[in-house]
Each structure stands twice: as C-alpha cells, then as structure tokens.
C-alpha cells in the first residue's frame, strides 16, 4: 500500500526545497531527538527502505532523487562492501547551512535496502568527503 502511495506522490513535481529539508532534518529533529537523533534517523531510514524497497540500482537512484536526498551512485562494489557517492544541490546547501549535517537517514536506508537485496546482514557508515560529496560504505556480512 505505501509503495503505491509513493508511486502516486512521485507523479507530482518535487516542491520540497533543500533548505526546508535541512531545516527539518538538521534543525528541528536534532533539537527534539537530542543525543538520540543519529540512532533514530538511522533506524527511520531502515524503516523507509522496508516500506519502499528499491530492488535495483536505478530504483535506489530514483528514490534518492524523488525524496530530495541528492544524486547517488555506486562507486565501488566488493563481496563484503559497497561504496556509494551522494552529490547534488541538496548536499551543497545542507553542508553550507549546517556545520555538521546528518546523513544517518540515508545510511539507514542504504543498509536496509542492500540487506533486502543481498539477504545478508549489513551496516552503513558515511563520511562527508567535502562540501559537495558524501561517501557511504555499506558493510555486508
């Protein structure tokens, strides 16, 4: 049911701005969730992946674009690890507006989605490479 709702929502132009996304995610949610923000956002990302399972690389890329999370591509793939690169205007704006923006929501999504694709346990970490790029590493057991 929720996946169908996602498909319906994806037919509308994306009116979400990077600023409003940064305001909610890096401002208000961090204030409300305080010290638990990173963990909660990570598990929220996993829950999003359960509800909107992206079965292919193209599906993951489409989901990130529609969600306003940026442009993502796989940069390397090994049996026990995948590296993903996230770029785009949303990343530039969040890095410019916030001293340390959180990308745990995206990390949780990638971890869960790759786990569902591979049927193997996963974890995901990230590193802000520069003001224009975030590198995610998905570790696969």
TrEMBL record:
Protein's UniProt name: Hydrocarbon binding protein
Lineage, highest ranks first: Bacteria, Bacillati, Bacillota, Bacilli, Lactobacillales
Annotated signal sequence range: none
Organism: Oenococcus alcoholitolerans
């Amino acid at each position: 049911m929720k996946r169908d709702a996602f498909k319906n929502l994806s037919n509308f132009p994306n009116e979400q701005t990077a600023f409003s996304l940064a305001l909610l995610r890096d401002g208000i949610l961090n204030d409300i969730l305080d010290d638990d923000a990173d963990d909660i956002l990570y598990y929220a990302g996993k829950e999003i992946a359960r509800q909107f399972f992206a079965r292919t690389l193209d599906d993951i890329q489409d989901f990130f674009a529609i969600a306003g999370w940026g442009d993502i591509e796989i940069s390397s793939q090994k049996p026990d690890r995948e590296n993903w690169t996230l770029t785009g205007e949303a990343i530039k704006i969040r890095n410019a507006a916030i001293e340390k923006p959180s990308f745990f929501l995206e990390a949780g999504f990638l971890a869960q989605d790759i786990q569902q694709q591979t049927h193997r346990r996963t974890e995901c970490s990230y590193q802000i490479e520069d003001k224009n790029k975030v590198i995610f590493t998905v570790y696969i057991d």
